Amino acid sequence: MRSLLSKLFGWLLGQPEPRIVCDMSIWMAGVEELSKRTLGRRRESGAFLIGEAPEGRPKVIRAFVYYDDLDEHALDTGIVRFNGNKMSKLWDICEARGYRVVADIHVHPGSYGQSPSDKADPVMPRAGHFAFILPNFAAGTVKPGGIGQYEYRGNGLWVDHSTSTAPFLTLR
């Protein structure tokens, strides 16, 4: 009922639909696991966010698939270094569940700003891919408004939606 009312008020006020939605319980459980995988805030962690991507509607996050479950050495250096040769495991998971990659997420030790390596080497280097960055090893703010929200446009170009007034990621 609340989401229906939110949608109706959004239409009345002329607010656009969010680009991505996620159930609050899925988001919080996934973020908690990301925090645990930092090993006491000693390294970054990350995941692919998989779910549904209906044409013309918001993408829906249904599950987190953690980098180090796909590539056991992805977090060994303290920062995320995902081996692209391990992507076939992700594709197998998506195929088995009938999902697609919706976005990716990783944690930083400080702010949610993109590092030069984040900008130069997106884990999904295709236009339209979304990336989220959680500050403080996911120990602080982990909801929209306090996290990095980025959209890859291709050719090294990113759009930062982190402080946008229009909804980008909505938790329900």
Side by side, the strands of the main sheet go: 7-6-5-4-2-3-1-8
Spans with pLDDT under 50 lasting ≥5 residues?
1-12
Number of E-state strands: 8
What structural category arises from helix and sheet content? alpha/beta
Average pLDDT taken over every residue: 90
Order of helices and strands: HEHEEHHEHEEEE
| Major sheet characteristics | 8 strands, mixed
List the keywords.
172 residues, eight-stranded mixed β-sheet, single chain, Cytidine Deaminase, domain 2, globular, alpha/beta, 8 strands
Can you walk through the features of this model?
With about 170 residues, the protein is an alpha/beta fold. It has a single domain, classed as Cytidine Deaminase, domain 2, CATH 3.40.140. It is built from 5 helices and 8 strands, in the order αβαββααβαββββ. The chain has an 8-stranded mixed beta sheet with strand order 7-6-5-4-2-3-1-8. The longest helix is centred in the N-terminal third of the chain and has 13 residues.
